[in-house]
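Q: What residues go here?
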């Protein structure tokens, strides 16, 4: 059976954003841009979205938000250069270049 997901935007405020009971009942995936992937057709996920005042997004809307954040991070990474630095040295200094993420249905 294929899993189906829903997406929302909600800012993580820290402790209590996802409590122990929620984490045992819901599979969460946090994505760039404060986008959250949770199971669709799940009472507990719907209650969590309400609790955190999440704004529901279609998959395409969520994808556009994630793409925008990653594209900006890639531009920042590309512009962060040091004279005579090799590609390997750059990765050691600031990490790998951010890669695009494709959201699941």
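A:
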């Amino acid at each position: 059976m294929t899993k189906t997901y829903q997406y929302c935007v909600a800012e993580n405020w820290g402790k209590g954003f996802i409590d122990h009971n929620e984490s045992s009942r819901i599979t969460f995936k946090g994505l760039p841009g404060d986008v959250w992937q949770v199971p669709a057709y799940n009472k507990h996920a719907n209650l969590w979205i309400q609790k955190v005042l999440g704004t529901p997004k279609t998959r395409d809307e969520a994808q556009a938000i994630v793409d925008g954040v990653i594209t900006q991070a890639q531009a920042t990474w590309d512009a962060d250069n040091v004279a005579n630095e090799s590609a390997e040295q750059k990765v050691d200094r600031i990490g790998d270049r951010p890669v695009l993420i494709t959201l699941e249905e």
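A: Context that may help when evaluating the design: The chain has one domain: 5-94. Residues 9 and 35 are 4 Å apart (CA to CA).
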